[in-house]
Amino acid sequence: MTARLRIAIMISGTGSNMLAIHDACRSGRLAADIVGVLTDKPQAPGLAKARDRGLHVEAIPVQAGEDRRAHGDRLLAALKILQPQVVVLAGYIRILSDEFVNALADRLLNIHPSLLPKYKGLHTHRRVLEAGDTLHGATVHYVTPDLDCGPCVLQARLKVQPGETEDTLVARIHRAEHVIYPTVLAWLAAGRLQCIGSVPMLDGQQLKAPIVQDFE
Ligand code: GRF
Fold first, then answer.
1. Beta strands 5-11 and 32-39, pairing class
2. How far apart are CA 148 and CA 80, in angstroms?
């Protein structure tokens, strides 16, 4: 039997993606264990939820005068002890240092609430509505030093409905995210997905474009 995938999760907020990943681990859909949950925000609601589930949690806030690199080094030191095979950003709000990203090259994943390469950065739902787009979604991608630019693995795509608001989009996108993040991690755990030199391979084929899954 192959060993279970060791996952560390980094959050700053509500942690609903973290819970979805944990649910998938508990149900057996994902052959993985969450070895730790790290946050920069000790008051993040997701941290209490992780604690309630008995997960190992660590709050590593930025200290006064600490720069991005020094904070990243402390995060890396914590991860070194946890020994994850993959580090999952799930609503982690802070931009990470290049050194942090490079130290975890090909092992660092993020979920971004847009159909990348569209709408990198913040306020994606508002920008989609303002632009009058008919499609929106979320993307699981490997992280590289350029923000929201790493190679994409899986996208959830949904139609923007008449009368849609930011709030309705947040809810619909979250529901889709809770499916696609565990899916990508299950591919990793099963040895179906690898990333070598920032080139993702699924079932032995180079992923030149993300897989797209449609959602209601
Ligand atoms: C998600 O929408 C994700 O795409 C973005 O941050 C949000 C995190 O939500 N990066 P949650 O904390 O997992 O509920």
1. parallel
2. 24
Atom of ligand 1 nearest to the CA of 16: 14
* Residue 10 neighbours by CB under 8 Å, 6+ apart: 37, 38, 39, 75, 87, 88, 89, 90, 92
As a CATH number, domain 113-139+155-216 is 3.40.50.170
State pLDDT tens for residues 5-14: 999 999 999 9
Please identify which of the residues 22, 56, 71, 112 carries the catalytic annotation: 112
Q: Which residues pair with 201 in a beta bridge?
A: 194, 206
**What CA–CA distance (Å, rounded) separates 103 from 40?**
19
Which residues is 86 bridged to in the sheet? 7
Whole-model pTM: value is 0.97
CATH architecture label of 1-104: 3-Layer(aba) Sandwich (3.40)
Q: CA torsion angle for 112, 127, 97, 48 (degrees, to 10)?
A: -60
**If you measure from the C-alpha of residue 139 to the centroid of ligand 1, how many angstroms do you get, rounded to a whole number?**
11
Q: What digits encode the pLDDT tens for the residues 82-115? A: 999 999 999 999 999 999 999 999 999 999 999 9
Instruction: Give kind and range of the element (H or E) at residue 57.
Output: strand 57-59
Coil vs helix vs strand at 41: coil
